[in-house]
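Re: [ENG-882] Designed sequences occasionally contain unexpected residues at chain ends

Forwarding the minimal case from QA. Structure tokens:
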């Protein structure tokens, strides 16, 4: 199978930090079809050779094990080409069309790794230039819009040029091996299915914590914030993966139909639930890895009076038979105590206690997403101190570390997703109706914050966010897992 992958924004941050290393790994693993071209596109006037040199220099910043040897790079570089064009200039599309006509590849992938403001113009012009052929797939990076109306408008424009089955909307969390393991845990095994419901589960917590600040992306982040950057997409996709019904098969639309039902079942916000169940924060000065670090408002590219949230914690419920009444807590933030993404399923305690009260966590399944990928099952056991009658039970933990079990050389998220696009597999991409439903649900929060003069609550960098986040969950009689 031959392919042309056109990387709009081929000299940008995403291209060289994520996409090129992922394409090289696929090339190294022999999974990238050999008969292919990767065509970088940007406004810089570069020759193919200059583009190859640029990419080679960027590989010096990639971790050693994932860096190509000189021989490997020479073979990979043969795939790399460059077309200079300005996506906002209709006349520039002719050169791209001529380059694609040179080969008439079986599959053409157009990857829009550029500013979202260019997405609609690019799709319109690609169609004008006749570059929306049935063998073309278009890949859209997040964020797709900044609210429901803008998301809808982008989707409408893209759909005028491409059919829904040609559109690949990236949520790179869905490409993570750990998220695929969540699907495997739920739908490849029958063990947990009878327990996966309101009768046995007390609450579910989803945390995506970053220890870094905004780094060099202050400008972008300040107009986005944690709700748009993480909750509307990644956190809600994780919630769908946890809460969805088993799909009838593994086809893309069967999976996406079930995820959509979850999004549609999220309890609508009321003035009271918005006031009590949504907490926003912004990091102030503090520490990271033992070193003092600046607050958000002091970061480069950030407005010194910024009201942008770098932390969100919220509580929601899913109004259906399986989940009615079970609280789902979602939490994400920057400059938190550690880099840690996990889902905690807290099962109900035993209905009648015949042992002394245990200490610590039990009855709990933890799905670790990062930095490690694995499962922990927390149970109670009779510990060493069993000479006395009525000894308290001790918590014990069963650990399944997928990185150790399968090796850390597993396929990374972008590698997996790029290969899926080339092969036309849509399972791990988000359909427009899912995306719109997610925007519809976060919109009341955005509207509330827009008119709210209080702004986000400050929290010290290196902590788990504002204390109001702990207070919110404590009102239900629960605690975040690191606080219990
Ligand atoms: P970036 O570093 O600013 O790169 C933008 C790229 O687009 C450059 O190659 C730039 O090259 C090119 N470009 C800009 N205007 C153009 C035009 N009119 N015509 C043709 N090319 C143009 O941005 P980025 O961080 O890579 O982000 C790209 C997209 O990915 C954005 O939608 C972003 O939200 C998304 N994203 C990025 C990351 C990340 O980690 N960086 C993560 C998730 C999503 P020239 O200026 O030379 O034209």
């Amino acid at each position: 199978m031959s392919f042309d992958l056109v990387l709009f924004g081929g000299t940008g941050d995403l291209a060289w930090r994520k996409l090129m290393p992922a394409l090289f790994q696929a090339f190294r693993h022999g999974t990238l079809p050999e008969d292919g071209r990767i065509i970088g596109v940007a406004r810089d006037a570069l020759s193919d050779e200059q583009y190859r040199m640029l990419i080679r220099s960027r590989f010096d910043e990639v971790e050693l094990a994932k860096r190509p040897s000189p021989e490997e790079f020479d073979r990979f570089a043969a795939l790399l080409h460059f077309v200079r064009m300005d996506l906002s200039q209709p006349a520039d599309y002719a050169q791209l069309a001529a380059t694609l006509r040179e080969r008439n590849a079986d599959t053409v992938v157009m990857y829009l790794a550029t500013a979202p403001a260019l997405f609609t113009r690019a799709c319109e012009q690609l169609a004008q230039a006749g570059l929306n052929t049935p063998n073309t797939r278009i890949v859209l990076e997040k964020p797709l819009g900044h609210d429901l109306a803008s998301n809808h408008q982008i989707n409408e424009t893209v759909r005028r040029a491409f059919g829904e089955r040609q559109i690949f909307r990236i949520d790179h969390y869905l490409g993570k091996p750990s998220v695929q393991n969540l699907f495997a845990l739920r739908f490849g095994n029958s063990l947990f299915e009878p327990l996966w419901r309101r009768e046995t589960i007390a609450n579910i917590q989803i945390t995506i914590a970053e220890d870094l600040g905004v780094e060099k992306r202050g400008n972008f982040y300040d107009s986005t914030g944690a709700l748009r950057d993480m909750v509307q997409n990644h956190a809600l996709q994780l919630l769908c993966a946890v809460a969805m019904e088993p799909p009838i098969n593994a086809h893309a639309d069967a999976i996406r139909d079930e995820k959509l039902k979850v999004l549609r079942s999220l309890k609508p916000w009321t003035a009271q639930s918005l006031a009590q169940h949504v907490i926003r924060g912004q990091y102030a000065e503090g520490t990271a890895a033992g070193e003092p670090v600046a607050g958000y408002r002091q970061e480069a590219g950030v407005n010194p009076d910024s009201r942008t949230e770098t932390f969100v914690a919220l509580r929601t419920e899913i109004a259906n038979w399986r989940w009615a009444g079970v609280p789902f807590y979602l939490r994400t933030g920057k400059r938190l105590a550690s880099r840690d993404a996990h889902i905690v399923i807290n099962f109900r305690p035993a209905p009648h206690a015949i042992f002394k009260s245990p200490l610590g966590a039990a009855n709990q399944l933890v799905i670790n997403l990062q930095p490690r990928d694995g499962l922990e099952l927390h149970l109670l056991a009779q510990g060493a101190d069993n000479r006395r009658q009525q000894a308290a039970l001790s918590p014990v933990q069963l650990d399944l570390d997928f990185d150790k079990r399968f090796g850390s050389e597993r396929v990374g998220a972008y590698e997996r997703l790029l290969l899926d696009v080339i092969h036309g597999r849509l399972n791990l991409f988000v359909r427009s109706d899912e995306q719109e439903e997610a925007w519809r649900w976060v919109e009341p929060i955005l509207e509330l914050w827009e008119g709210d003069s209080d702004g986000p609550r400050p929290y010290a960098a290196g902590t788990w966010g504002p204390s109001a986040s702990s207070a919110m969950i404590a009102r239900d009689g629960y605690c975040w897992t690191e606080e219990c």
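QA comment: On inspection the terminal residues look reasonable. The longest strand covers residues 278-288. Proposing we downgrade this to a documentation issue.
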